Amino acid sequence: MDRDQENIQAIIRSLELDSLKQSNEHVPQEEVKRHLNVVFIGHVDAGKSTTSGQILFLGGQVDDRTIQKYEKEAKDRSCENWYMAYIMDTNEEERAKGKTVEVGRAQFETESTRFTILDAPGHKDYVPEMISGASQADIGDLVISARKGEFETGFEKGGQTREHVQLAKTLGVAKLFVVVNKMDDPTVKWSKERYDEIVAKMIPFLRSSGYNINRDVQFLPLSGLAGTNMKTRVDKSTCPWWNSRCLFEALDSVEVPLRNPNGPVRMPIIDKSKDMGTVIMGKIECGTIREGDKLLVMPNNAHVNVIAIYCDENKVRHSGPGENVRIRLTGIEVEDILSGFVLSSVVNPVASMTEFNAQLQIIGLPDKALFSAGYKSKLHIHSVVDDCEIVALERIDPRTHLPIRGQAHFAKNGDVVRCRIQVSNMICVERFSDFPQLGRFTLRDSGKTIAVGKVTGLQI
């Protein structure tokens, strides 16, 4: 990075801190930290929940007595190595099955950064839940098992490593840490050859998925179960060939994405509850929300008042983009809110519709299927999941970006198309060029991702 770029980044960081300070005036200046959302993704059994749990333990969020309780519980289930995962996998189904089935959420801090951890499920049956987690993230930790056979199972056709990477990129996870886990396994024993083999196989795929390897991706080896190379660098006696950062240092090095605290409010709602009124939960994508604000819940055009805002369990007066918050509202009942609704500015409300124009890339159609007008699938866009149908399409030449004339109006794997999409219910979307997090989406069919796309036009 040259001197001019360094100066620009320093100015951006200063402006972001100033904005955060102004929006939380009651917080002492020395306590204001930048905030990042990190999602843990990867194939089932790669060690995502264990690694997440270890981060919380090393970050001081879990005490020794709790760890001892989890160790005993795991041992009683004859699953001694699962105890760290119990920190994130809190419900009985997850502990009984030994796999994450919903997005776990927790917070930890380093000296300079507050992190929200999103622990996404790895099993193919829970990809919609993984999409929900990744759609809220700024950066991703792709956890890969170094154990012989496990990496291959996750990376080969049918494994979730590839789909998770493609989904993460589509959902706006711009920076990716590729965490090569279980390096202490007896089949690996911190082998540089095994680590290099995994990196060499991952790089071409990551590049083909749209990641710039030098700018967007960092690889590092660790043991999530033992906590090695996580908060402190791995000892040379354990891994003499590793000369770079540990996980906490790598996370701290990430630049905060550009955010707009002064834009129109956009907060997709991911959950709701009744707690002395109506409470909604979500990540603020744009704008700043303040106590006393009058806003809209869309698409039902409900006028609401903001009574209270909670960030990391703390009551705050203001909160800005990038923050995961709970907001207590008046003017609407819990039963009148669905996941996928959006809290929005009154003056500049989010768009609501049942049809929109889009550009798609077809990546994984079912065998012998053709993509054409009439094709039906599931649409995933921010926190919305809805049935959809392609009502018109034209193929695009990827070199000229112009329609291909004189050919049948259908597409196959690898094709790029422009199309019009119709959904079953009124949903909130925006042009990708205006609000990327509300304008990028995936289509899924038969349990797999078939296309990734962006909204290019609104049918208002």
From TrEMBL:
Keyword Protein biosynthesis assigned: yes
Purpose: This protein promotes the GTP-dependent binding of aminoacyl-tRNA to the A-site of ribosomes during protein biosynthesis.
GO terms under cellular component: cytoplasm
Name of the protein this chain belongs to: Elongation factor 1-alpha
Nucleotide-binding found in the keyword field: yes
InterPro entries hit by this protein: EFTu-like_2, G_TR_CS, GTP-eEF1A_C, P-loop_NTPase, T_Tr_GTP-bd_dom, TRAFAC_GTPase_members, Transl_B-barrel_sf, Transl_elong_EF1A/Init_IF2_C
Keyword field: Cytoplasm, Elongation factor, GTP-binding, Methylation, Nucleotide-binding, Protein biosynthesis
Family from the record: Belongs to the TRAFAC class translation factor GTPase superfamily. Classic translation factor GTPase family. EF-Tu/EF-1A subfamily.
Ranges of residues in domain Tr-type G: 33-259
PANTHER family tied to this protein: TRANSLATION FACTOR
Taxonomic lineage: Eukaryota, Viridiplantae, Streptophyta, Embryophyta, Tracheophyta
Record localization: Cytoplasm
An MF annotation (GO) of this entry: GTPase activity
